[in-house]
Amino acid sequence: MNPCELANSVTLSLDQYFKDLDGEPPHALYDMVLSCIEKPLLEYTLQYAGGNQSKTAEILGLNRNTLRKKMQQYKIE
After folding, report:
1. Residue 43 neighbours by CB under 8 Å, 6+ apart
2. pTM for the complete prediction?
3. Cα separations (Å) of 45 from 16, 40, 62?
């Protein structure tokens, strides 16, 4: 999958989100989108790295402490 496919998926999801609002104003869209994407990204990468947090942080380009903070935020063990 190339990055454009991911962008297309986000665009399609946002199209549906705004249709589903049915005239209601959107709220906290940025945080909602990030949490919908970030948690599965962290979980998948952790699994790919065999649960190794140092390797996961390296793959993601994050500091290990940042990874741990995000894991706590999303209640990922």
Report:
1. 76
2. 0.82
3. 27, 8, 12
Q: How far is CA 8 from the centre of its chain?
A: 15
Nearest to 56 by CA among 45, 43, 72: 45
DSSP code at position 17: H
pLDDT for 63 equals: 97
- Percent of the chain's residues with pLDDT above 70: 97
Cα–Cα distance for residue pair 7/23, rounded to 1 Å: 25
Q: Please give the structure tokens belonging to residue 62.
A: 């994050």
Rounded distance between C-alpha atoms, residue 41 and residue 22, angstroms: 30
- Rounded to whole angstroms, the Cα distance separating 76 from 72 reads 6
